[in-house]
Amino acid sequence: MAAERGARRLLSTSSLWLYCLLLLGRRTPGAAAARSGSAPQSPGASIRTFTPFYFLVEPVDTLSVRGSSVILNCSAYSEPSPKIEWKKDGTFLNLASDDRRQLLPDGSLFISNVVHSKHNKPDEGYYQCVATVESLGTIVSRTAKLTVAGLPRFTSQPEPSSVYAGNSAILNCEVNADLVPFVRWEQNRHPLLLDDRVIKLPSGMLVISNATEGDGGLYRCIVESGGPPKYSDEVELKVLPDTEVTSDLVFLKQPSPLVRVIGQDVVLPCVASGLPTPTIKWMKNEEALDTESSERLVLLAGGSLEISDVTEDDAGTYFCIADNGNETIEAQAELTVQAQPEFLKQPTNIYAHESMDIVFECEVTGKPTPTVKWVKNGDMVIPSDYFKIVKEHNLQVLGLVKSDEGFYQCIAENDVGNAQAGAQLIILEHDVAIPTLPPTSLTSATTDHLAPATTGPLPSAPRDVVASLVSTRFIKLTWRTPASDPHGDNLTYSVFYTKEGIARERVENTSRPGEMQVTIQNLMPATVYTFRVMAQNKHGSGESSAPLRVETQPEVQLPGPAPNIRAYATSPTSITVTWETPVSGNGEIQNYKLYYMEKGTDKEQDVDVSSHSFTINGLKKYTEYSFRVVAYNKHGPGVSTQDVAVRTLSDVPSAAPQNLSLEVRNSKSIMIHWQPPAPATQNGQITGYKIRYRKASRKSDVTETLVSGTQLSQLIEGLDRGTEYNFRVAALTINGTGPATDWLSAETFESDLDETRVPEVPSSLHVRPLVTSIVVSWTPPENQNIVVRGYAIGYGIGSPHAQTIKVDYKQRYYTIENLDPSSHYVITLKAFNNVGEGIPLYESAVTRPHTDTSEVDLFVINAPYTPVPDPTPMMPPVGVQASILSHDTIRITWADNSLPKHQKITDSRYYTVRWKTNIPANTKYKNANATTLSYLVTGLKPNTLYEFSVMVTKGRRSSTWSMTAHGTTFELVPTSPPKDVTVVSKEGKPKTIIVNWQPPSEANGKITGYIIYYSTDVNAEIHDWVIEPVVGNRLTHQIQELTLDTPYYFKIQARNSKGMGPMSEAVQFRTPKASGSGGKGSRLPDLGSDYKPPMSGSNSPHGSPTSPLDSNMLLVIIVSVGVITIVVVVIIAVFCTRRTTFHQKKKRAACKSVNGSHKYKGNSKDVKPPDLWIHHERLELKPIDKSPDPNPIMTDTPIPRNSQDITPVDNSMDSNIHQRRNSYRGHESEDSMSTLAGRRGMRPKMMMPFDSQPPQQSVRNTPSTDTMPASSSQTCCTDHQDPEGATSSSYLASSQEEDSGQSLPTAHVRPSHPLKSFAVPAVPPPGPPTYDPALPSTPLLSQQALNHHIHSVKTASIGTLGRSRPPMPVVVPSAPEVQETTRMLEDSESSYEPDELTKEMAHLEGLMKDLNAITTA
């Protein structure tokens, strides 16, 4: 036996030696061939293959309880079998000496009797399985988290509650999140059985829906986590019988934001209670969820929503809507779905040679975005000069050496989990060709190694290798061809280089055959490198050149660029930037400067940072920024990094949509228009709009509808007739809903538009003739209550009936083509509906001649490089309309005749809308731009007339302004109190007082009345004050039967059609002591137009007299001065009467001359009264209403009113009046406005309204000039017969000479003298007769010899001559009756003080001097 064993041993030994000799014999020819300069015969025989080495099972996250056992699974595959080890928190476990942890045969880790306490948690942590094969390398598994449930503790416990039968109830039981799976409930100390009606939410809360009597009892929750169970408080749930009484709808449990991982289940809790019992429905991102037909969506008891197997598409905002028929409530929550890291591209195995550069590619996805790290043979790869992370995730290895072989793993990790994928690197000998085509993981600089070698001579070493250029960071090498191949046209070269002291060699290849130079980049300054060059031909690589040692140039000691700069958004307003220390720091880095800039701007900001990361806050939402980093050392700033760009996250819009407007279409539909939020507030891509609307009477019943993000209007149909609805719109992004607009109201029509009669005449028609076409534009009829189906346009030469064209009712312009040049066309426009055609509107136009090139298209012949002008010049918008929506909002719409018929804007044109109010006249225009054919003008003043015009701009071309449209905003309650409130006592009636006031500065509409409050106690409640109503726009009122010698307090409140305004401040007045002292409360004499009476106080003239003179002395002075005054008045009256008689004689003589001969006919200097109301298109006459109120001024005691404009007229107007008083003197009675103005101590102002719209009924003006003098003669010969006085104006002939009839005359009102007791008639200027109409009617004459069409409205103003003004409202004060006025004058004379009379006499002397000067002239 021993001999047999020895023979076997010898045989096996001999076999082994024989096998070794065979191997040596195979390798010897190859070695000899190599030494002789020829290639090996069979290189593929020595190529090693990749070895499968991977994990079959990896550990997963595990939850355990104290005292239990846990198995973390792990199994790896390889040939030979790998060795398995475990790491906990990055440290290898010593399982040999551990009695609780042991390694199972398959590689899994078993932990028995888990230990966990408050201060000792040895088993909880992160575990990783490590597999090693000695001859191959090492791989690591993903990390798994072992969590040990803590001791039970309740964060909230159930509370006693009651529930109505059929309703829902909840009982709280919240514990730490790890123990939720161990929670159960008991009812009356018995385990509670859960079903479809009674459920336990993931938080541990118990929900009971459709409660019954059997649900009543005692409840508690129990936590059983391995140790002794822990019980909550035991509480009682009472079930109350159902009742008919309703209760408010409330949420018992609302959904809260949740984060789940793909594949998990999620429950969105929502429980509501109320009577009647509510129903629950769910919406996601404004879309209703169908829980009945869906397999993944289940509606749980109480209304909670369960989603099974969550996907990324389930992320979004969920709305829980509870409705019980009486009201609706809603709650919302965001569901965020996260995803574990997944590999889009895993690393692949690589063959390579030494000195080559390779790249392992790795692409991952996940949510949040995973971070990537690399592991080689189980050890972390630390980035360096030769190991670099490129393109965020890929690993680049430069200058391979033999020790780089092994297994490389890409490990991706985020908040949800981690994953790993690996590949093997095999480095072949240089004489072994790589068997496959160049993989993508090889860099372009090293792919020349992959050419398969064939048998043949190899090149010798390149000659004369020199460094022809040496810089700080690059070296240029040149050489000559090898001696074995002097031509070297087919040779390629490889340059091997290494840094001195480093064993790792890198290679750089020439770019094309025959090239004999290479530039080596990315070198370090002041560093020694060794270079050698090798030539290759089709047979392989030849001999290497001798090593060349070169040192790069030193550079300024500044830092290099910071590597691996990354930027990522962390919120809608913040971005985090990270980087690493520069490789060439050149000394200690002192700090970094982070530069950032918003894309599209040129303003770069910076911040100093001392670490390797920084978070910039306060950025704009959903905005792209660029970042770069510069390192600083003691020498200064270094090299900047490349810019990295990143956009902040999107968010919900921070502002509501703009320009929301409502357009009532008919009795059942309303059109909504809006504009997107301002770009800076959109915070992301607008994905849609949410429209919510409701009846104004049922605010809880809200209806919602969604439209796409590109839609800016929506027609809401199916509404009730004659019902007011509220609307609001909110913008949506993928993040949710932004703020909504304010509720805007509109009321549907009681009935649809009338079609029982034909439409009325269109409100305007304009034509613009060209050479062979005429552009016709129009506006619809003013009466919008009649249906218009379209418009019929008739035209022809001399007659409009030659041809007829019908267009749609929405159209506002039409171009009539193919017309004859230089021809007179008559055009008619009629609106029609199903009943028939309405009244036509006529216009005529003459087409331009062929020679007129102002509108002819221009083309350049034989000039291909000359730009051709646009053949269609920009024309202004037409059909501008102003639709009043509220007291401060007007919607402007128009048409653009340069757009196609459907009026769709497809280019970059935009429109500019301008508007202004006409009061005061010097108001500046305001402008706004729009990209649609409408604009909503907001922020206007109530009850104010505005004019609007539009222009279009396209590129560098703009049109002129369109024709103006006018609109008056709706009224609003007065926002200011009546002003200048004064109180005087009535002469001879000490118990009667007269209250005077002025209208509010901000009346916001026509004043329909006032309310006077008065009381003897200023601190009394307002409902205890006595009320005196004043109807109409009267500005004075008398109150009778007051108590003598008693202080009274007065307040006044104005009223218009919209309601009551604020009250004025209280004004004090003390009634006289005795019936004889009538002057106790009387006003002081006039102190000028700027005098303001005191409001209160003992020094008021309405209070007790403060003069120290004796009453008898005072009476004597007053009587004496009164007598002197009366004598002077009589003298002046006689003088003025003579002048008046002389003036009337001259006027009759002038009228007679006009009637006798027509020598003034057609003369531009012919005197005629100013024509104030000429319509700018038809030259029509318009009547003027003196006052809308039959008794606008007085009650019992006629205190005259001082006319006030709706908005104050500036003082410059008064100064203009005084400058022109000598040119505009007319007759004025003592009983008229002069007396009224004197009574108030102010000059009256007149404002005259001129309507820019055509009247409904007008008197057609005859263009013949023959009839004008006759009309003038009838008027100018009318004597001054009005006993109450009148205000008249004279027309200045010199102004006609300057203006020569080109502008309309302007009305001027001569100011009355401020002296209240004297009204002196003015002496008329010599020459033409004056126009002196009597109040209350004002005849108006049209302007004659008007040679051209006037497109703008000419209006009258005050204090200006020969200049047009915007329309102004007229307020003409009525004169009091003669008897009352005389009595007022007598009353006022008895209250003069001595110093006042002195001023009166001085004023009278000045007036007499003026009269003497006039007489002399």
**Tally of separate helices:** 9
Mean pLDDT: 74
What percent of residues are in strands? Answer: 35-45%
Q: What Rg is obtained from the alpha carbons, in whole angstroms?
A: 50 Å
Bin the helical content. 10-25%
| Largest β-sheet summary | 6 strands, mixed
Low-confidence stretches: 1-45, 444-453, 855-871, 1076-1109, 1149-1392
- Terminal CA distance reads 170 Å
Question: Rough shape?
Answer: extended
Structural class: mainly beta
Counted beta strands: 87
Would you mind describing this structure in some detail?
The protein is 11% helix and 35% strand. The chain is mainly beta. Helix 3 runs antiparallel to helix 6 (1267-1276). The radius of gyration is 50 Å and the shape is extended. The protein starts with a helix and ends with a helix.
Write the layout of secondary structure elements.
Layout: H1 2-36, E1 53-57, E2 62-64, E3 70-72, E4 75-78, E5 83-88, E6 91-92, E7 101-103, E8 109-111, E9 125-133, E10 137-148, E11 154-156, E12 161-164, E13 169-171, E14 174-175, E15 183-187, E16 190-191, E17 198-200, E18 206-208, E19 217-223, E20 230-231, E21 235-240, E22 247-253, E23 258-261, E24 266-268, E25 271-275, E26 279-284, E27 287-288, E28 297-299, E29 305-307, E30 316-323, E31 328-345, E32 350-353, E33 358-360, E34 363-367, E35 371-376, E36 379-380, E37 387-390, E38 394-397, E39 406-413, E40 418-428, E41 463-470, E42 475-480, E43 492-499, E44 506-509, E45 517-520, E46 528-537, E47 540-544, E48 548-551, E49 566-571, E50 574-578, E51 591-598, E52 604-609, E53 613-616, E54 624-633, E55 636-637, E56 644-647, E57 658-666, E58 669-675, H2 679-682, E59 688-695, E60 698-708, E61 713-716, E62 724-733, E63 736-740, E64 744-747, E65 762-769, E66 774-781, E67 790-797, E68 803-808, E69 813-816, E70 824-832, E71 841-846, E72 878-884, E73 890-895, E74 910-917, E75 926-930, E76 934-937, E77 945-954, E78 957-958, ...
Parallel strand pairs: 2-10, 12-21, 23-31, 32-40
Antiparallel strand pairs: 1-4, 3-8, 5-6, 5-9, 7-8, 9-10, 11-14, 13-18, 15-16, 15-19, 17-18, 19-20, 19-21, 22-25, 24-29, 26-27, 26-30, 28-29, 30-31, 31-34, 33-38, 35-36, 35-39, 37-38, 39-40, 41-42, 42-45, 43-44, 43-46, 46-47, 46-48, 49-50, 50-53, 51-52, 51-54, 54-55, 54-56, 57-58, 58-61, 59-60, ...
